[in-house]
Amino acid sequence: MSQNKWQELEQKLFLRTFSRIPLTLVRGQGARVWDEQGKEYLDFVGGWAVDSLGHCPPMVVEALQKQAKTLIQTSNQFYTIPQIELAQLLIENSCLDRVFFCNSGAEANEGAVKLARRYGKLRLNSAYEIITTYSSFHGRTLAMTAATGQNKFQEPYTPLPDGFVTVEYNNVEAIKRTSTAQTCGVILEPIQGEGGVNVPSNGYLKEVQNWCHEKGILFILDEIQTGVGRTGTLFAYEQYGVEPDIMTLAKGLGSGVPIGAFLAKENCSVFSPGEHGSTFGGNPLVCAAAYATLKYIIDNDIPGKVKRVGKYFMTKLEGLKREFVFITQVRGRGLLIALEFNSEIAEEMVMACLKKGLLVNKVKPTTLRFMPPLIITEKEVDEAVDILENALEEIRNPKL
Ligand SMILES: Cc1ncc(COP(=O)(O)O)c(C=O)c1O
User: Fold this and answer.
1) Ligand 1 proximal residues by C-beta, below 6 Å
2) Alpha carbon distance 73, 96 (integer Å)
């Protein structure tokens, strides 16, 4: 069946939620994917910051094959070893004490908010409100739509669940002004991903943490996009000298196998049996894949490599900025990077790069975002930058 045939079928069969790019992918290896015609693409979207070790990483494939032959799913009434091994690895390598496994980022944030509300009920005189920020993204469930500070996601679904107050990002005074006796926590992304790769000023997270400590409310970090090596440390909080009370993870944790998690400090691990749960969460198959991913990332200092290659990539992008005056900013950390334009040309850039064999993401009409696998090499960065340069040249000079 041709690419067009699959795409025609998709148009008939699906609810119209995705504006998909006209490309049907059939195979992936490392930082590369192939379409049905065998055309190769360098993948700087990485499954939306999910394919941390690239496509079909051998250590994850092997772990999945072995686990699939052994035990795929039990209920969470029983103990299973891959889940416990993954929990131990996460706890040993973070500042958190306990973990709950689920299946996606939205679900991890839902769980984190439920835990904060439970904490509020038990310890803060039933305080239940969570402060969130504009331009944030926390997921697509109804409550996470309410937590997400972007009108375009909220407006179609109003009225939204109660209990979220939104303030300006990178502004601790706004959080201070908005905190009341009803507040039980603050949820933030260390760097806003879907909002356009917004990097806060250096002291921001620390000041928010200090305020949370002062008020006795919970400091919750959504590390779903920034976690597991993406920004050059295993978790982004390490770079800001803070420790969250609750942290959420998903995306890169499973190298493409759906998994989410929220982790908490002992003092706020207040759930009792039966107060939260999941059928699939933490099943042996996904935990074996996530364990193989995380172990490889830790044992091979992938965050260190991300820091190095990310810097190299940003330096190259700064070079493009000097060459093309319509690039106004290069920003990001590690391998979560954005290129900002002075007009709405991101879509055109995505299509121009696609033609030349590079996949990139339009995060806003004026912004491209790069989230390649964490294992990309400087040579692959060079290849991507050459394609970007050609695409930019075409946009500057449409007659080419
Ligand atoms: C920071 C952040 N939180 C939550 C989510 C939601 O994750 P999921 O799509 O797995 O529900 C995302 C997804 O992009 C995200 O970037």
Assistant:
1) 48, 104-106, 109, 137-139, 189, 193-194, 222, 224-225, 250
2) 26
